[in-house]
Amino acid sequence: MTGAPELKAPKKAVSHSTLGRAQRWSWIFQRVSGVLLIGLIAVHLTVNLVMGDGINQIDFAFVAGKLANPFWQWFDFTMLVLAMIHGANGMRMIINDYAQTPWIAATLHWALRISTVVIVILGTLVLFTFDPCPAGSDPSLLPSFCEDI
Amino acid sequence: MTAPADAPVTTDAIPTMTVTLKILRFDPDGLDGREPGTEYWEEFQIEAHATDRVLDALHMIKWEQDGTLAFRRSCAHGVCGSDAMRINARNRLACKTLLKDLNPAKPIMVEPIKGLPVEKDLIVDMEPFFASYREIMPFLMTSGPTPERERLQSPEDRERYDDTTKCILCAACTTSCPVFWTDGQYFGPQAIVGAHRFIFDSRDEGEWDRLEILNDKAGVWKCRTAFNCTEACPRGIEVTKAISEVKHALNTGEI
Fold it and tell me: A69-99 burial, b if ≥16 CB within 10 A, otherwise e?
């Protein structure tokens, strides 16, 4: 028997400020973004699939018409950023839980970070540089406002 | 109602049954030609009453069949918290689990609690668990002179942390936590329960020191409300609720 365990002095409290702790903010972000995403996705699905002609209305003209509107650009941008960070944060937890080998965990973490940044940048580019009236295409496939240009 | 005195004694009326136990054993010394550190399942058959507990079955095996079987138990009545083990894939106290509640038709699987290093058979090294408990300073912290009498408290103030005073440090919650299994840094549910008991005690003044420790990397934010701890607790403590109350205190700054 080794006898009684050696007692460590209790951990010193670092500071009374609870700000600036990444763990805590990631926890709060996950909950707040989750609630916001429920609303955003519900509106997104309703507008795209329920209102108007429902699922049959989705074609290039419909999407182009939506993305020509700054409101829907910023709406989709918010949804893109929140969903990507929310999902990546959750994936980070899953990697922490299941990737036991350090190099596998590090590889997965970096793959996750890179893919998150790439998808957010690509998505943002599409949202804000999208051309709803590409020159030389069949006018019947384009949104109605393209005739005025 | 008591039986008349001349009624025949009917102890045989209690039916016995044959129960198979499959125990996950760990042999650190390498007896009987095994490699030291071998882990293996071993089956035992015992004749037991429906009213017997898993602990009684383990006793029957140790006393009558295989004396090398090692497990901890002290009071054997659900108070000391020594005999937490994983029975049919759930953490329970062997002394509070009746065989009849476990479907004795199938082998009863008994394993050591997960996430702590196994020393022999069902005995694990509890030191990492107790080290986490010491980290959160589980003792009354006050300032000012010691009063001559008890430190008084209203029943309402006592009620706030009543649930977490029931903890017996059996480690059933901590070793059922999926975060604890994979993240050796996490304090685990029990340490947060232990901290909750003092944080919400109106007589204690060390609440922010403890909250600061639990706000750290290994603290409450690792919890993702799997509820395994609440289900595992043999004392019925609402562990996940206690952890959420600590999170709430950290988020609002109010206790």
Answer: eeebbebbeebbebbbbbebbebbeebeeeb
